[in-house]
């Protein structure tokens, strides 16, 4: 049986403010988090944090350069805090990454390997950002993958639909929060 972890990625105040469309995203994500905890599945939070002065940002990186221009992601700024509606609990691990993938510039792989985790359940904002990048890298690292389609969000609904409906199913099981909760809840 696989050792699962639920990754809650980039659900930070500034990112939620930009992307949340009022569709009930945070309550759905909260249900997934609560369900994971009830099933004793570790919840690992991943946040993007850049050092003051942003020495890890190259002008060749279009996404990070635009974020820096907008003043996003500086460690210690209130906007980089995890959104309070899904805040970590005592014992939850919080990993700081420096780029798109949850693995980039972080110790996520070490945290997962030490715990014997070989299966990841992905959630986060944005579907075309952290979720896509993490899915690709996690697949290359031989993790078994599940994406909770309605616990991912993107500022472009069409891109979200293409990724979760056409691309992600090639590499992962793509399910809804409710279907995943049914699968992890003992009958």
From TrEMBL:
All residue ranges annotated as the Isochorismatase-like domain in the record: 5-179
Source taxon at top rank: Bacteria
Lipoprotein in keyword set: no
InterPro entries noted in UniProt: Isochorismatase-like_dom, Isochorismatase-like_hydrls, Isochorismatase-like_sf
Keyword annotations of the record: Hydrolase
Gene Ontology MF terms: hydrolase activity
Protein's name in the database: Cysteine hydrolase
């Amino acid at each position: 049986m696989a050792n699962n972890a639920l990754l809650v990625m980039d659900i930070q105040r500034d990112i939620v403010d930009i992307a949340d469309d009022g569709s009930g995203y945070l309550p759905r994500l909260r249900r997934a988090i609560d369900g994971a905890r009830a099933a004793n599945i570790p919840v690992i939070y991943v946040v993007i944090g850049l050092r003051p002065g942003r020495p890890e940002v190259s002008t060749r990186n279009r996404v990070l350069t635009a974020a820096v221009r907008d003043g996003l992601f500086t460690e210690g700024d209130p906007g980089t805090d995890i959104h309070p509606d899904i805040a970590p609990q005592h014992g939850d691990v919080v990993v700081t990454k420096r780029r798109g993938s949850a693995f980039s510039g972080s110790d996520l792989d070490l945290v997962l390997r030490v715990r014997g985790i070989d299966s990841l359940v992905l959630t986060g904002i944005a579907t075309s950002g952290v979720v896509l990048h993490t899915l690709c890298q996690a697949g290359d690292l031989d993790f078994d993958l599940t994406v909770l389609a309605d616990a991912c969000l993107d500022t472009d609904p069409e891109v979200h639909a293409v990724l979760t409906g056409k691309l992600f199913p090639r590499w992962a099981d793509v399910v809804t929060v409710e279907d995943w909760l049914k699968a992890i809840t003992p009958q």
